[in-house]
Amino acid sequence: MIVVKIILVLFFVFLIVCAIIQRQRVRFMPWVVVFFSCCSIYFVLLPAHSTVVAEFFGVGRGADLLLYLWFAIGSLFIFFLTVQIKSLNENITSLSRFIAIDRAVRGDNSEEPITGSKQE
Amino acid sequence: MNEVWIVIAAYNEASVIARVVEDVRLVFENVVVVDDGSSDETFTELKKTCAWCIAHPINLGQGAALQTGIEFAIKNNAQYIVTFDADGQHSIEDVVGMLNLIRTGDIDVVLGSRFLGCAVGITKFRRFFLKCAAFFTGIVSGVWLTDAHNGLRVFTVNAARQIKIRQNRMSHASEIIDIIGSCRLVVKEYPVTITYTEYSIAKGQKLSNSFSILLEQLSSKFIR
Asked: Which domain holds residue A58?
């Protein structure tokens, strides 16, 4: 049981370090991760306290409360990542489009050997 | 026909693209083909034609390729923009008819409909599936059409400016209808002939992709 506790604590410490390193790139989420990781370390070391909190919220067991919380945070992360990936894709599309239009050429059979957009 | 620009999105169409472009060029002077990062000789073949050739550095999808072509046409003072498939299943006579219709009055967009016209070689299953897709698009967008996923479309330049395709992949067809609905553009359908060949069926949208298109369309409602 002690081994599992050590692994879990190390994992949450690792999460805290990662979140602090990333704090300047992403504004809000790192501090959410730090807060919940600290709470998790506390509840891993003192599981009886988590049950008290869980009972206060009507969940039952402390382990269940942690599971639900991390599931919610994980879902939130996936949502933010999806939005960020979509935004990155849009940037890549805009950049590719700009390059493509800038390099537009008229086919070799054309009578007007113009390169690039007419207005550019 | 100088104010008309034909936009063709091509991906790995080396075997047919030159013939399709030359057929279009018999009637329309301004043709722009966007090679969407093809891995075959599409761009080489394209450069042998008289069309404007644009090459995406990477494969982005048909929606992105059409948007690139539309933006290029707008930059070059297009008044009417036509989207045309690269696999040769559309008829150039239909484009002329659609342009005559859009010039008659206050119409922003003319969409081709194979179900008002003729779909040569279509299977019963594909016909049923496309009708279901049109019904679903009608529910989502409020624009009721007989054929919502036809690649043959004519836009006025004002409509084209409003229609900014953000769905890079295949769900752009539904997105266009969505935008037509949300911008309250005046849309008319025109009966067209679509000729399915072995090549166009092999190149065309797989019915198995419909689930991912549906998901893309729904997710785009929540994440813009």
From this structure: 2-105
B59, β-bridge pairs: none
A113 within a domain of the structure (yes/no): no
Flag whether A28 is in a domain.
yes
Whether A36 maps to a domain, the answer reads: yes
Spans of chain A, pLDDT less than 70: 1, 110-120
- Helix, strand, or coil here: A7? helix
Of B47, B60, B68, the CB nearest to A101: B68
User: What pLDDT does residue B76 have?
Assistant: 94
CA distances from A48 to A40, B7, B170 (A): 13, 67, 53
Q: Tell me if B54 sits within 8 A of B69, measured CB to CB.
A: yes
Calpha distance B188→B205 (Å, rounded): 24
Which residue of A104, A111, A119 is in closest CB contact with B54? A104
* Residue B158 pLDDT exceeds 90: yes
- Relative to beta strand B4-10, strand B30-35 is parallel
Q: Looking at the domain assignment, is residue A118 inside a domain?
A: no
| Residue numbers in B near A93 (CB within 8 A) | 60, 64, 168
Given this model, what pLDDT does residue B82 score?
A: 96
pLDDT (0 to 100) of residue B130: 86
Pair B120, B194: CB distance under 8 Å:
yes
Model confidence band, residue B207 (pLDDT cutoffs 50, 70, 90): low
- Where does A1-120 have alpha helices with state H? 2-21, 29-45, 47-57, 62-102
ipTM topping 0.85: no
- Tokens of residue A110, six digits: 């054309």
* Alpha carbon distance A65, A55 (integer Å): 9
Indicate the number of domains in chain A.
1
Q: Which residues of chain A have a CB within 8 Å of the CB of B52? A: 104-107
